[in-house]
Amino acid sequence: MPATIRDVAKVSGVHVSTVSRTFSAPHLVNPATRARVLDCAEQLGYRPNRAARALITGRTHNIGLIVADIANPFFPPLIKAAESHARGRDYHVFVADTNEDAGVEEELVLALAKQVDGVLLCSPRMSNTQIERLSRDVPLVVVNRPVPGLPAVVMDVAQGARLAVEHLGELGHTHIALLGGPRGSWTNREIRRSATIAARAGGIELTIIGPNPPTEEGGWAQAETVARSGATAVLAYNDLMAVGLIEGLEKVGVSVPAQMSIVGIDDTALSRRTRPMLTTVATPTAAAGRAAVDMLLAHGDDRRTTALITLATELVVRDSSGRPPSQ
Amino acid sequence: MPATIRDVAKVSGVHVSTVSRTFSAPHLVNPATRARVLDCAEQLGYRPNRAARALITGRTHNIGLIVADIANPFFPPLIKAAESHARGRDYHVFVADTNEDAGVEEELVLALAKQVDGVLLCSPRMSNTQIERLSRDVPLVVVNRPVPGLPAVVMDVAQGARLAVEHLGELGHTHIALLGGPRGSWTNREIRRSATIAARAGGIELTIIGPNPPTEEGGWAQAETVARSGATAVLAYNDLMAVGLIEGLEKVGVSVPAQMSIVGIDDTALSRRTRPMLTTVATPTAAAGRAAVDMLLAHGDDRRTTALITLATELVVRDSSGRPPSQ
DNA sequence: GGAAGGACTACAAACGTTTGCAAGAGAACT
DNA sequence: AGTTCTCTTGCAAACGTTTGTAGTCCTTCC
Q1: Where are the alpha helices (DSSP H) in chain A?
Q2: Which of A80, A145, B5, B19 is most buried as measured by Cβ atoms within 10 A of its Cβ?
Q3: In 3D, which of B289, B295, B263, B291 has the Cα closest to residue B276?
Q4: CB count, 10 Å around CB of A227?
Q5: DSSP string covering A69-84
Q6: In the structure, what pLDDT confidence band is assigned to residue B304 with cuts at 50, 70 and 90?
């Protein structure tokens, strides 16, 4: 029912190949003919069938975007930026949610492989070897984790964690708790590594609590442990956990920031909406989405880009961090 | 480079059509042959090329999902549910964000039309006639707005608004402000209509403030107007505006709920995270996503489903609503 | 005035599938 | 033993494009 290239050819009295070139190589067709063809196409409401085009060119002009959990406020800004950026370059985006499941993740990459020119893998739960294997089927760009031999975009959370610890140190805290994230997370290891170094440098005692699920509940559940740890400040794996922790602390009668300072990571929209507003490490998620799309599309040209892009983070001081109780 | 049906045919010593049938009509091929073919396919890592299949069957097994703003916390749960539900039925989902722009919306539907079996249009900003025209190019299901002649899924916000007004009435409020949403929104009209009726029935004065942009800023900006309106309670178009309003009221020295009760709509994840926690009307967004997918896929079979599904809403009472100040 | 080149267009094969049709082999019926 | 039926498979056309090759007609040059 929808107009095909053949309909346009018939109506405008030229061969299909001429119609095709009118769209894909305009300089090869006579201006007068081109005008006539465009006119007929317009008239018929013709739009090239991208699937058919993909069959022969091998380029679908689609990309896949796989995230662990769309409902996690970290991802929507990334998705939004990536989608918009891709669309600006005439690419459409498949979005899929793995529910934090590595198996689903692999299945999705495979299922999408033939329909896209590449896949953005955000915060993957798969092993490096799994990811490397998949990258033979379809170009991959990994976000939030470096994978040897593959292009990746990561946030400089090490810097962020250092800034956070230094900030707390300057406020006078001498004992900080680190509320860790999920076990397999590269980001989690980075934070831990960097916070440990920064704490040692600042003469600060660091208590590590975790691993924990990276959710509000995960933070909430550790409130008592945190309260009894002797620490006067906490650096949490992400905002979600920080918020859960604040809530949990309230419940056990510890007020923030008077008795306990809290610093989150990510600067999600959430952090400006809680009371007290959350001091947090801002990670440039939108920029990460755009950068990942750029890498993926560049990927096509030269054979195998291996670059690792590291985006700077910064500390955003709000109301959840303050001086330790004078006692 | 990736294995095609022809490679599998060659290796397993049968014709391509037999391989094809092994996957798309297994009962037509001899069990022994089928086993052998499947084995070879497995060996070669063969996966049918869905684009090529779509070319001939006319069914892409993809659906489009167009939302106004991915970063609006209303949408992620809907997207997540729709994507997961669709994947369970072997469909993949294109997600696109229109930035609240009707022009982008139309362009997206057209661009996606050939690549999908149908499009879910969530909270569209286009006119009904525009939508109807587009529905001739590609099956559409509209979410959050009824469009004559098209299948749609809507929330019973009228019921929700009534419950909210009654709740406030029972608490003793006699003057309520309605903080309206965007001009073109059907949901906004419904809320307004229903709140007006409920207020009259309860002997409550209703002041309508708006239209406003459906964002945190939109709520924030009206804080002073609300404070001066004489109302002791507010029903906001959505949670985002309610949260913004609470923040704005704090700034001008009005405390919630002591001096002003606030009720939101949507019950986004947000509403449990703010202080005070938000009393709000829960809309079943995940269910809406699933229902819309179901309608879209059913749509294919019988020619034109016109059904309108209305999902019930309910009031969730939390901490932002209370008795009016005794004065 | 013939050759050489340029601009434009048509032809046809290809991309990876699906599917209607036909053919062959047995099995089951009459 | 002939007919019909079922099961299984192969053949080939089709889906809507792109693109290499070749052809036509003009210009331009020597």
Answers
A1: 5-12, 16-24, 31-44, 50-57, 75-88, 102-113, 128-134, 157-171, 186-201, 216-221, 223-228, 239-251, 285-301
A2: B19
A3: B263
A4: 18
A5: -TTSTTHHHHHHHHHH
A6: low
Instruction: Tell me which chain A residue has its CA closest to the CA of residue B48.
Output: A114
Say which residue, A214 or B302, is predicted with more confidence.
A214
Q: Report DSSP state, residue A4.
A: -
Give contacts of B94 with chain A, Cβ < 8 Å. Answer: 62, 92-95
What per-residue confidence (pLDDT) applies to A300? Answer: 60
CA-based nearest residue to B101, from B146, B144, B68:
B68
**Residue for token pair 């022969």:** A56
Distance A49 CA to D22 C1' (A): 28
Burial of A216: CB neighbours in 10 Å, binned 0-12, 13-18, 19+: buried
Q: What is the pLDDT of residues B61-99, one digit of tens each?
A: 999 999 999 999 999 999 999 999 999 999 999 999 998
- Model confidence at A304, pLDDT cuts 50, 70, 90, reads low
Please name the residues in contact with A265: beta carbons below 8 A apart, sequence gap of 6 or more: A157, A160, A161, A164, A191, A235, A236, A237, A238, A239, A242, A280, A281, A283
**pLDDT class of B107 with cuts at 50, 70, 90:** very high
For residues B225 and B207, is the Cβ–Cβ distance under 8 A?
A: no
> Per-residue pLDDT for B1 more than 80?
no
According to DSSP, the residues that pair with B92 across neighbouring strands are: B62
Q: Residue A210 has what pLDDT?
A: 84
- Beta bridge mates, B209: B179
Q: Looking at residue B274, what is its pLDDT?
A: 85
Q: Is A27 on the interface with B (CB under 8 A)?
A: no
User: Cβ contact (<8 Å) for B113 and A47?
Assistant: yes
The rounded percent of chain B whose pLDDT value lies above 70 is: 98
Name the DSSP letter for residue A182: -
Cβ of B47 within 8 Å of Cβ of A114? The answer is: yes
Task: Tell me which residue of B155, B144, B150 sits closest to B129, measured CA to CA.
Answer: B150
When pLDDT is averaged across residues A200-222 and rounded to a whole number, the result is: 95
pLDDT of B55 higher than 80: yes
Q: How far is B275 from chain A (nearest CA, A)?
A: 6
B16's tokens: 């391509």
The side-by-side arrangement of strands in the sheet containing B92-97 is A308-311, A152-155, A140-143, A119-122, A62-67, A92-97, B92-97, B62-67, B119-122, B140-143, B152-155, B308-311
Q: Do residue A50 and residue B114 have CB atoms under 8 angstroms apart? A: yes
Q: Identify the residue among A46, A97, A246 best suited for mutation to test binding to B, counting B beta carbons within 10 A and taking the highest.
A: A97
Length of chain A: 327
Phi (first) and psi of residue B320, to 5 degrees: -90, 0
**Which tokens in the block code for residue B3?**
């294995």
Residues B80, B82, B84, CA angle at the centre, nearest 5°?
Answer: 65
Quickly count: other Cβ atoms within 10 Å of residue A304's Cβ: 10
CA distance to partner chain A, nearest, from residue B187 (Å)? 23
Residue range B194-208: mean pLDDT, rounded: 98
Q: What is the C-alpha to C-alpha distance for residues A278 and A276, in angstroms, rounded to an integer?
A: 6
Which residues is A234 bridged to in the sheet? A177, A262
Q: Which residues of A135-165 are buried (b: 16+ CB within 10 A; e: fewer)?
A: bebbbbbbbbbbbeebbbbbbbbbbbbbbbb
Interacting residues of A35 by C-beta distance below 8 A, sequence separation 6+: none
